[in-house]
Amino acid sequence: MPGLNFLSGNETADMKQNLTIALSKGRILKDTLPLLEAADIIPAEDIFSSRKLIFDTNHDNIKLVVIRATDVPTYVEHGGADMGVAGKDVLLEYGAKGLYEPLDLDIARCRLMVAGMKDAGEVEGRMTVATKFVNITKEFFARQGRQVDIIKLYGAMELAPIMGLADRIVDIVDTGNTLRANGLVPMEDICYVSSRLVVGKAALKMKHRQIQPIIEQLAAAVDARKERSEQI
Ligand code: ATP
Ligand code: PRP
Predict the structure, then answer these.
(1) pTM (predicted TM-score)
(2) Could you say which protein family the record assigns here (predicted)?
(3) Which of 80, 93, 133, 142 is close enough to 75 for a disulfide, judged by CB 3.0 to 4.6 Å?
């Protein structure tokens, strides 16, 4: 029947729209690729040994871009990519309103914490906090009615209290080894962090039929990974 043919032709075209997925380079990438593979999205070449920024996949309409973690929400919110993978820390700090967060990928798990020198006493007066998470830090202390001065750093936050730059830091803590190695201790818990799948609002509307099965396959891969790790 011509009507049915017309419908299925449209569906095929819809399923074939170009789709770009933004991946955080760095520590999240190696845990992201097996999840994508389980959703049948496989880069056409080895990402780790390439200087390329855009990668073809086993689907001629799906591309991967590999960028700094902090740039992922920007790309997805503004439509430079349709979906992405980024840490909850990065997403909270960015504060995007134009992003859906349909799936916790359960990788790169850690906590955001306030930390300070082991022997640091109470801070009298205004506290100085060094961090790369300026917005999260502002909000955390504001919610407690505490006024703090924030110093923005881009890495090695643990050094700041040692050098007398700040009373406290706000940073990622996983094993606690970096804090311990530098004579710091965790003091207050801010939130749990793991990597999330994010989808742009426009992309979810325009490419829903293409994106939904990917979300479902990734969710199944996350569950399978959890089951495997519970068995060990
Ligand atoms: P950039 O290099 O762009 O400044 P970054 O150094 O924060 O970013 P990564 O170290 O690759 O990038 O970390 C990416 C994400 O991994 C973080 O946003 C956070 O969600 C998570 N993460 C960071 N450190 C740890 C850790 N020690 N253990 C587990 N997860 C972590
Ligand atoms: C992250 C974070 C802490 C460390 C925490 O640093 O900024 O320094 O990991 O992990 P741990 O509790 O297991 O020691 P990263 O290694 O990414 O270095 P950078 O952010 O300073 O580049």
Answers:
(1) 0.92
(2) Belongs to the ATP phosphoribosyltransferase family. Short subfamily.
(3) 80
